[in-house]
Amino acid sequence: MLIHPEVAEALDAGRPVVALESTIISHGLPRPDNLRIAREIEASVREGGAVPATVAVVDGEARIGLDDDALARVAGAATGEREVVKVSVRDVAVVAARGGVGATTVASTAHLAARAGIRVFATGGLGGVHRGARETWDESADLTTLSRTPVLVVCAGVKSILDVAATLERLETLNVGVLGYRTDRFPGFYRRDSGHPLYWRVDEPDEVAAVLRAQDELGTSAYGLVLANPVDETDELDHDLHEQTLTAGLAAADAAGVHGKDVTPFLLDFFHRETHGASLATNVALVRSNARLAGEVAAARAR
Ligand code: PSU
Ligand code: MN
Known about the structure:
Blueprint: E1 2-3, H1 5-12, E2 17-20, H2 23-28, H3 33-48, E3 51-58, E4 61-64, H4 68-74, E5 85-87, H5 89-97, E6 102-104, H6 106-115, E7 120-122, H7 133-136, H8 141-146, E8 152-155, H9 164-173, E9 177-181, E10 185-188, E11 191-197, E12 200-202, H10 205-218, E13 225-228, H11 239-256, H12 263-274, H13 278-302
Parallel strand pairs: 1-4, 2-3, 2-7, 5-6, 7-8, 8-13, 9-12, 9-13
Antiparallel strand pairs: 3-4, 3-6, 10-11
Helix pairs in contact: 3-13, 10-13, 11-12
The protein binds pseudouridine-5'-monophosphate and manganese (II) ion (MN).
């Protein structure tokens, strides 16, 4: 692991740091806008009061915090760059051993962040249980990884492409707590409300910091925690557009026979194309909002 000097310095001094995943850059957002957006996400962490640490594998090295050149490579902007691999926990050692370039998912980012001593992590949406999982067994490794990784993930819930109810049940089984930020409803990524209630609501970053402290004292910080932050009302995707695109996207994935780790990128790309950029605007807005909030929580924790 190579920790960026600015990140290492902040960690040593007990200053706030927020980890960011990179699959969202390589596979979740369209090129070439993804590089600019990746920089904006980092800027949002700084606005919140913390140092950003985007995580990725570059030339076989697990990096915690990327310089501009590394960020560009993960975004696929460099000419002649080989395919950037989507790297989950099970893949990270293989890509590292081969000297490859890989973008880390929520699962592998959480793993590497915790290993580097970073507690707070921001992303767009958590992976979860896919629709039809009863037959396909497709459940994101994000869930099992969170069940054994001491990290707080700030996200806008899980995407509506997933089986949200089943995902919430699995989080319960896996001892992963879910806090709603200024909401009593589990957010639905592009939409503020997935239709599912939440048990715990927090209204200030200090409250989240207090929960993290209590987790440490009680030994439940062995498990991850989710801070679910709904997208701002003004950035929400239109209700009918969302419903139509979701139905069409699920049918298209089925017809194309998309499997395994290609499912999530396929559906995100479908949304971005079919909504003519509307879902992309929502996606960017919610990630930036999560990054900023994660910065505020990390800062509250450092105080
Ligand atoms: N949610 C998004 N955009 C993304 C992802 C999730 O809004 O790009 C990525 C994250 O990296 C997440 C991964 O960890 O998809 C989940 O993929 P899978 O379902 O294959 O585990
Ligand atoms: Mn999967």
